[in-house]
Amino acid sequence: MIWKYNILTIDRLVLCLSLRTLEGNEAQEFVNNNSPEHWKQNNWHERHLAFHQKFPEKFAPDESVSHPSTLPVYFGNVCLRFLPVLDITIHRYLEVPATMSKTLDVLLDHLGSLYKFHDRPITYLYNTLHYYEKRLRERPHLKRRLVGTVIGSLKDVRPENWALTKQYHEYMLKKDETVNWIPELNYYITLVRRMQDTIDGNNVFQGTDWRFNEFPNPPAHALYVSCVELLGLPVGPQTVANSLIDVVVKGYPVIPEFRVHNWINTIGLLMAALPESYWSVIYDRLKDIISSVQMTDWTHRQSPFEMFNFKIVKEAMLEKNYVVILAIAQSILHHSGIGQISTITDFIKEKFKPIIKTEYQLIYLCHVVGPFLNRLSTERPRAVSDITLILYELLEQVDKAQSSAPLKYMDPICDLLYHIKYMFVGDMMKSDLEAIIRRLRPALQMRLRFITRLNVDEIGVEQQATEGSIPASGQSQAEFKPQVGQTVGAGGVGGTTVQQTQQSQPQAVQ
């Protein structure tokens, strides 16, 4: 209106603001004399008209014959109409340099009480902290000020603990800007327990009329207020995310025995609702597990399929770090949107692929991505193809790293690859996968030969051509070539004989 359409010039705007008569704070008077729960008041309309009489508004030129009087205002006023403008103004202040934050403090002091009448104050606060997380990361005082202003404006009409925990209330009451509160693990356990109790049906937020509330039910309300509190903490995203994960990893003894899965589900729900800098920390924890000494040098008596099974580990009281991190990762990915879960391909390439050298590490990664292949095939088919190619490349990487040692679990790995072929990718990746399969050891080629229609006579030929000798496993090619009529135990194709295969080939040619 000023620079593009020239409806109003900047000098006239500043002049009008400077010459405006100071008649008091209309916003503060409106807030003090009215309530956002207008359905509970019998004389709300009288109070509204009294405000308009004291601070009249003109929506048309002065009354004359050609301009009759306008209709009376029954609900809105300048304070209510200014709320969306105030929302945008605060966002603009967050985008400018931090040196102008004092101006934002003055604005919140004078007009922050208007959020008492905001339709969705928690949603606005959540969206603001979520979108501007990077800009607010190093400004904990401003985050505390925003949370305190919006939620504090409703202290007269809402119960005491309707949104924030007691610990965060105590943090907001501290006026010193240098206060650096680092919550302990008990704080996160309390926050997750409140969320879990709400999901279980125990209404923690008493005195809330859900007919007129911002959210339709207590769990949705608990999720948003918990995320607002986590985003408003004066610590970094990695600290918050690791603490949430440690609620189960380190706080396992305080969790009820039969509620562990529920708590893991709640943590996944919270993490998935936070920005990427929070939920991406789970990939760092997975990387720590995969690169651990136990994964590179397996010393457990149990197989990896037993150590990665939550039920077996819980009942046998085995080492639980593997399954707990795995369960939390699957919970986060389950609650994530498709935009979040589709990034798993990039994280596998960047974080996991360079460190996977053993079949135990590969099996653990398969436990991470396996449950979500069906969803990805529906919403992001390209992601399934990328993950499939990565799994074959990792299998080749493991094969080369352990060329002198036998692979104990090649059959289950091949079973998964056959499952992916027949359920998701089909033959569309045949040319890409055939080149990788031909570079594997003959035992793996024998098991995966039906994926690329590899003939038995061709198995091990490429290794002999490149190495000029017997394959690295120390066995000759004849040892891997079964006799006619002998059953070959291939993953997913058990019971197929070479004789049947050779008999079917002439028929196909005919």
TrEMBL record:
Q: What is this protein called?
A: Mediator of RNA polymerase II transcription subunit 23
Give the UniProt keywords, A-Z: Nucleus, Signal, Transcription, Transcription regulation
Q: Which organism is it from?
A: Culex pipiens pipiens
Q: Does the keyword Signal apply?
A: yes
Instruction: Give the principal location in a single coarse category.
Output: nucleus
Any one Gene Ontology cellular component term annotated for this protein: nucleus
The UniProt entry, under Pfam families, shows:
Med23
> From which residue to which does the signal peptide run?
1-27
Localization per record: Nucleus
Superkingdom field = Eukaryota
Q: Which InterPro entries match?
A: Mediator_Med23
Would I find Transcription among this entry's keywords?
Answer: yes
UniProt lists the family membership as follows: Belongs to the Mediator complex subunit 23 family.
Which portions of the chain have biased composition (kind: Low complexity)? 496-510
Q: Where is this region: Disordered?
A: 485-510
